[in-house]
């Protein structure tokens, strides 16, 4: 705790936890110990969007008239994963993260993130309803974690890490804090930061061909949200690292690298399924290379040296942040029900 914070608390009965993962429940927003999370919460509000703003009409024409059967298969598999992916993230937020991060500012942000995950789920629900009109096929897509092996493998990876701290009621020991942090880093770097970003690459590939503009528009907004979620989780991890310098050792970094390697393997299997019919311009080899590129970026964000040494094989991903992203707030601020001043800066590089 800083000297100024301690002086503000002198003569007060307020107890501020020494560590952000301390057990207990801190409800005190003043003096604010972690104002950066309050600013993240405010930035999240500025990024408000709704599914009703997205027009899927041209997407339906593309699916029926412009996409090949192999490309339709890719898209249907992709939205089937999306439909369950954000629900898994939401469950981990509610069941594992919220109760153990002892910072009211951080919990404000987690509350905002939970709302955003709900909007994402609604977006993917709407996608499936529009893209897969046949009720039986749509039912299969919604139960993808049970009947599509490539998606089931990714879900099993997610659930393994949810289960790893499911019975953890209080974080009191060093090993418990370590296990909690591994769960949070897994969801930020592997699930939101790798599985979702791999999926975004398929979306932006189609946009680069002038296809599926509705899917791309919604994905732009999801991209922003997910980038902020990742930044938040890594900020928590950095605070823990500073509060307990001996906590983040070589073995801990090895576990993070192993998680990312396992996630790349699962996502590469998903790519084999998506591209099984042959899609001109995409290959499993290039997708694995892109995943290694993204994974190295996640490692850099955590201050860990890259291990995959991959370059970005997709030029269209280098352009994605300037197509509609740059003028997002200029274009939409007048549509807010409540005017929000200011700008949001996103540090995601890919």
Question: Can you tell me about this structure?
Answer:
The N terminus and C terminus are likely disordered. 67% of the residues lie in helices and 0% in strands. Helix 8 runs antiparallel to helix 9, helix 9 packs antiparallel against helix 10 and helix 9 packs parallel to helix 11. The chain has 14 helices and no strands. The chain is globular, with a radius of gyration of 21 Å. The chain is mainly alpha-helical.
Provide a quick synopsis of the model.
With about 350 residues, the protein is an all-alpha fold. The protein has helices spanning about 5-10, 35-45, 55-65, 70-95, 105-130, 135-140, 145, 150-165, 175-210, 215-245, 250-275, 285-300, 315-320, 330.
Which keywords apply here?
globular, mainly alpha, 14 helices, 67% helix, disordered N terminus, single chain, 350 residues
The helix-strand sequence is: HHHHHHHHHHHHHH
Helix-and-strand structural type: mainly alpha
Radius of gyration, CA atoms, in whole angstroms: 21 Å
Task: Give the beta-strand count.
Answer: 0
Tally the helices: what do you get?
A: 14
**Could you list the spans in which at least 5 consecutive residues all have pLDDT below 50?**
1-16, 321-350
Largest sheet entry? none
Which assembly state applies to the chains in this document?
A: single chain
The N- and C-terminal alpha carbons lie at a distance of 35 Å
Give average pLDDT, whole number.
84
Taken as a percent bin, the fraction of beta residues is under 5%
What is the share of helical residues?
Answer: 55-70%
> What's the overall geometry?
globular
